[in-house]
Write a structure and sequence with these properties.
heterodimer, A: alpha/beta, five-stranded mixed β-sheet, 14% strand, B: 132 residues, alpha+beta, ATP Synthase, domain 1, 2 helices, 9 strands, 44% strand, globular
Amino acid sequence: MPSLDDLRKRITSVKSTQKITKAMKMVAAAKLRKAQENAEKGRPYSEKMNNVILNLSKSITDKENAPKLLVGTGEEKVHLCIVLTADRGLCGGFNTNIIKKAKSYFEKIISENKTLKIITVGSKGYDQLKRQYKSYIVENISFKESKNINYFDADKVGKIIIEKFEKNEFDVCVIFYNKFKNVITQIPQEQQIVPLNEDKDDKDGSGNDNDYEFEPDEDEILSNLLPKNISTQIFKAMLENSASEQGSRMTAMDNATRNAGELVDRLTIEYNRSRQAAITKELIEIISGAESL
Amino acid sequence: MSNLFNIDIVNPEQSFLSKDNVFEVVIPAVEGEIGILKDHIPIISFLKPGIIRVFSESEEQSFYVEDGIVEFKDNTLSVLTSSIFDLKDADKNFVSESISSAEAELSKDNIDDQKRFLLNHKVEVLKSISLN
């Protein structure tokens, strides 16, 4: 049975933890709003980019000579996986969910005897993956210094990917990130960016008028556009990720605050009970002492 | 009948400009400047460093772009670019910095002709901006 003093100390400590989690929740809520706004603002760019590429790839008739970034190298032996995670912890299952999704993909690749290469973006992902997949990790990028998600950072990652592709270091590139659905739900995503997966659902014939004029020709535009598209996709993933991270942290911290509250309630009851027990004991001692006189 | 059409300029971070009352836009396409009026045929092209001029009924706006993609379809001109600023609030320091970094890039030996051409062009445009 803990003494009264012990209980009092525990209650104070849980209360101060609760204050911290509460503050973190509020910070996350404020950041979430901003991150969500940014994610929404960034959407038109990637949508338009997708549209243009879709229109372009439809008008390419000569599939054999099309840029390799679009149609692939014709093989799929080496898989490059980009795992995008957060730089900070304390955000519930956010990082773990991405890692879990990525790991199941890794296992599939390894069991098929294909080569696996991993690039981690964000330090948490690296921390969790280095134990098991250390030998596969080729690069570890972290943007701890940049306060906001910016396109410049995404472009850096994009350039690394292009450079590796030009050196024929991989055939297929997949990115892993969390898609922001709402504050409570974030869905881990795997998205193939090289070769580009063509949208199967043809948007009801809207793109059938292939009478675009191209200047210069399609091939040149495509080879200029595809590297940009990779950066754009990475950027989109980073934006979704940051909104998800804040959402996830907010929910996690909200839960933590509530749990701390419950703990304080329970401890307080215990504290009061043992206080009353002590008083009763003292009273009995006094009464029985008086009786014996 | 009106001769106006829509323009959307977006950069990765946000929608930069969206107007529905422009009658002419001049864009620095990679093979020369293109002036776009209403009912232009659908076109896809990409940009070289230069100045986009947007003429609407009430005003004329100019923006500096470094690169990007333009698409014109159904009387909507979409410009996708990662580097754009309004000439009105051009930052002198930024401009001179860009010039010197482009010149530094030019002095390297291992660049191909196309890149050299683009960089030369960039320096030219930026210098003309800083003169104004």
